[in-house]
């Protein structure tokens, strides 16, 4: 199939384009959000082709990720699948999805939590849980440091749990990886601005534990990556994290002091962290493996293209 999609979410797209199809990714001279083209810090196969959107004629399916994309693909007579990466905002129990009450597409949620919380009205939905390309690095935990991966923690503040960083940095130095992290630098917090994914995995694997402090999020792919590295997880027991991380793979709680105490424990007892991390890796490989993810997507794409014929 020839599948059209924008480069919106680098980690998710990296997994998605590992399939058997041809992936058409719009590009423009500015390489702005409407034309980023191929990723520069992720490893994408040659089947991902940069295209000028105006020059694209025929596609077999379109994967949408932002409401504004719908108007830009109106001329194409092809099945459309809207991927919802995010949790609802605002008055959450009442939040209507921008694709609510449509009969011309299906909304594919990335977590069951999203499917539960979004009000899509009569629009058809499905859930295709994340899958990732297995990281090459493996957990060593040699450094008595803690790690966080998140984008825009300064701007997003309480949503990403940025206000909690200081409590964990008092336990051990905290390293924060991602986009928009530069403003976090201090004597106990080190910011790593958007390193290449493979290099980030190497650095994460050296840290003693992974912190997932988002109060309100779908499910960070970086959390799954950390688990597949074999890292023990310390996480807020909110959103989909409670389903992704079993009790024998990490420590989850809504009481922040419980998590701070867990950080002390894992810094002081690296073997305990290794045991948790081994279980985390086993669980993440089984539930969030790439083969299952691609098979789920192939099934949905086939269903939608057959229904449109």
Record the SSE blueprint.
Blueprint: E1 2-5, H1 10-16, E2 22-26, E3 48-51, E4 61-64, H2 69-72, E5 80-84, E6 105-109, H3 112-117, E7 124-127, E8 143-149, H4 153-156, H5 165-169, E9 174-178, E10 189-193, H6 197-206, E11 207-212, H7 221-229, E12 233-236, H8 241-244, E13 250-253, H9 256-268, H10 270-287, H11 290-308
Parallel strand pairs: 1-2, 1-4, 2-3, 4-5, 5-6, 6-7, 8-9, 8-11, 9-10, 11-12, 12-13
Helix pairs in contact: 7-10, 9-10
Short account of what is shown:
With 309 residues, the protein is of the alpha/beta class. It has helices at 10-16, 69-72, 112-117, 153-156, 165-169, 197-206, 221-229, 241-244, 256-268, 270-287, 290-308, and strands at 2-5, 22-26, 48-51, 61-64, 80-84, 105-109, 124-127, 143-149, 174-178, 189-193, 207-212, 233-236, 250-253. It contains 11 helices and 13 strands.
Structural class: alpha/beta
The CATH homology group name of the largest domain:
Glycogen Phosphorylase B
- Number of DSSP helical runs: 11
**How much helical structure, as a percent, in the residues?**
25-40%
Tally of distinct domains: 2
- Kindly report the CATH topology of the largest domain: Rossmann fold
Shape: globular
Mean pLDDT equals 96
Number of strands: 13
Give me the Rg, rounded: 20 Å
**Mind summarizing the main beta sheet?**
7 strands, parallel
How far from one another are the termini?
14 Å
Q: Tell me the series of helices and strands, N- to C-terminal.
A: EHEEEHEEHEEHHEEHEHEHEHHH
Shape-level CATH architecture of the largest domain? 3-Layer(aba) Sandwich
Portion of residues in beta strands equals 15-25%
Strand neighbour order, sheet with most strands:
3-2-1-4-5-6-7
Ranges with pLDDT <50 over ≥5 residues?
A: none
CATH class of the largest domain: Alpha Beta
